[in-house]
Amino acid sequence: MCPTRALEEWIHHLSANGFFAFSLSDPMRPIASWFLAADSGSQLIQTWRQHVRRYWQRSRKLIMDPRDGNPFIVDAMAHVHPSTADQYANFPYYWFHHLFGYLISHDSAFLSDWKKVPRISGMHPQFLRLELEQRPDMLSIERAEKLLGQSPLHKMDWRMRLSQDLEATLLHQINSSKELIMRQSA
Question: In the chain, what is the straight-line distance between the N-terminal and C-terminal CA atoms, in Å?
């Protein structure tokens, strides 16, 4: 993660009902799971946790790692549905997302809680990483700064190699966020 704003500046507004996740437009993957925030008493999290524990009562093997090909499978929902999941000894790469999608479509209280979460696209926090992956030598400091301003945090990839100037810009953003947090808590 590359934070560009202190968590305290934005998360409470977005998690007023006790939960926040960036959203995706895919009904099979309605959330981005790389950043989740929740109060300890969140009913949405408690329900999701119960279903995750039920799902993993059985050992399972990964169907396909996305680095090896397309991780999407046709019957993904069947792999997480409580009435059919035990028929499968394997799990789809996006099982966690599919399980969330199952709960949205089968649990009205869960859906009601999810509808209270503001929809903030999970794509904006990935634009910087995507540009770095696709054309790292073409990304200017000015463009990086513009992308950094589009989201309070950014999903990065530890395998990326950055130029020294770009790395310095990112570190400056992180340090600025840390300094703001320290000033606010003093």
Answer: 25
pLDDT tens-digit map of 31-80: 999 999 998 889 999 999 999 999 999 999 887 655 555 556 667 888 89
Tokens of 5: 């704003």
**Which residue from 176, 29, 156, 46 is spatially nearest to 101, judged by alpha carbons?**
29
Chain centroid to Cα 98, Å, comes to 13
Two structure tokens written together for 124: 């904006």
Distance separating alpha carbons of residues 98 and 78, to the nearest angstrom? 9
- Nearest CA to 109 out of 50, 183, 47, 168 is that of 47
Considering the chain, what is the average pLDDT of its residues? Answer: 81
Cα of 59 vs its chain's centroid, Å:
25
Q: What 3-state DSSP class applies to 89?
A: coil
Q: Which residues contact 13 (CB under 8 A, 6 or more apart)?
A: 118
Predicted TM-score (pTM) of the model is 0.78
One-letter amino acid identity for 43?
Q
